[in-house]
Design brief:
Helix content is 0%, strand content 35%. It is built from no helices and 22 strands.
């Protein structure tokens, strides 16, 4: 299905035909996964190959996703300042339809006299070990400064990031997509710098927990569809409002996102024992943003196939005497001084909810 016969339902770039939605946004792939992407026809394929550190001058970090069928640096939903300078190298590769290798020798660029291009000999390496991150998660280390960004996946407890331009970088340790540690490192041309990182994540003994604190809404209602279709798509499950019961509801019934004009509020019910009452804290992790207005992110967010934001944590103190032995109810409501229609109304995207 293409967009030619569709009706624009959001701006001039999201279309619906027969209840199914299409948009340029739904081609996006996270930077760290995106080495080859393209289109094919009868006996032909046209691919973009993004070798090595091709995204070093783009913005947003390893988990950012951009409009792959149009450009590599659109600026939508970036959580870092927009970088400028030399982009790439990358290449357009024509094939018989088979995807090309992600390995591409671009060393000849060093002989072209291109402003901003830094050859391999003018770059350095960062390596080290990580500690304190729970098992079962993909762990990554990211580097960024005003001019460049890099990342590397941790193998066991070790990581190596090669081809880094000289400079001082902020290093971030990620548990899946959740920032759990930081550091600083200075890179020199031809040198190898060691930086060991440890998780500083605050892990509590919870009474109950919905979702996994990992910087993503993994496992929640409609998470499996949100990257490739609009929330109004007929293939989406009904949004609610949702009432979630601890002990009997599954995470897949808890909404990935909560919109003021669609599924507000979300209600959580549970039965507390006497030992679970008293003063407690409700911790809500969001991958987007809410209460007191955070830094504004450009573009629409969850309606254009991404949940990535600033990974904010909101903790609410529940005074002693509020929770009772027996049935309890918590109502989570999205508030805003702004407005919008249906899925463009103010919203949050959940990572997890914990009571401890």
């Amino acid at each position: 299905m293409d967009t030619l016969s569709g009706t624009a339902i959001e701006g001039s770039d999201v279309f619906s035909t027969g209840g199914q939605t299409r948009s340029k946004f739904y081609s996006s792939v996270q930077f760290y996964k995106d080495q080859v992407h393209g289109v094919t026809g009868s006996g032909i394929g046209v691919y973009m190959v993004m070798p090595g550190n091709a995204y070093e001058t783009s913005s947003g970090g390893p988990f950012f996703r951009d409009i792959n069928n149009q450009d590599m640096n659109s600026g939508h939903m970036i959580t870092q300042p927009f970088r400028t300078g030399f982009f790439g190298p990358y290449a357009m590769v024509f094939t018989s339809g088979i995807a090309p290798s992600a390995s591409l020798d671009t060393s000849f660029f060093s002989n072209l006299g291109l402003t901003g291009y830094v050859a391999a000999s003018g770059r350095g390496t960062v390596k080290g070990t990580i500690s304190g991150v729970a098992s079962g998660f993909t762990v990554m280390v990211g580097l960024d400064n005003i001019g460049a960004q890099y990342w590397g996946i941790v193998s066991g407890t070790s990581y190596t990031i090669t081809g880094v331009k000289p400079g001082t970088y902020t290093a971030t340790l990620y548990k899946k997509e959740l920032e759990v540690g930081t550091g600083s490192v200075t890179v020199t041309a031809g040198g190898t710098t060691t930086l060991n990182l440890a998780s500083t994540e605050s892990i509590k003994t919870n009474i109950w927990q919905i979702g996994v604190p990992d910087g993503t809404p993994s496992g929640f209602l409609n998470t499996d569809k949100i990257e490739t279709m609009h929330p109004s798509d007929s293939r989406m499950s009904a949004w609610g409002p949702v009432t979630y019961t601890i002990g009997s509801s599954s995470a897949s019934s808890f909404p990935i996102a909560q919109f003021i004009n669609v599924n507000n509020p979300t209600t959580i019910k549970w039965t507390a024992t006497s030992s679970q009452t008293g003063a407690r804290t409700l911790r809500i992790r969001t991958t987007s943003s809410s209460p007191a207005a955070p830094t504004k992110i450009d573009s629409r967010g969850v309606t254009r196939g991404t949940w990535r934001g600033y990974n904010l944590i909101y903790e609410y103190s529940i005074p002693s005497g509020t929770l009772i032995t027996g049935s309890n109810t918590i109502i989570i409501t999205v508030i805003s001084g702004s407005s919008g229609d249906t899925f463009l109304s103010p919203n949050i995207v959940y990572d997890s909810v914990e009571l401890y």
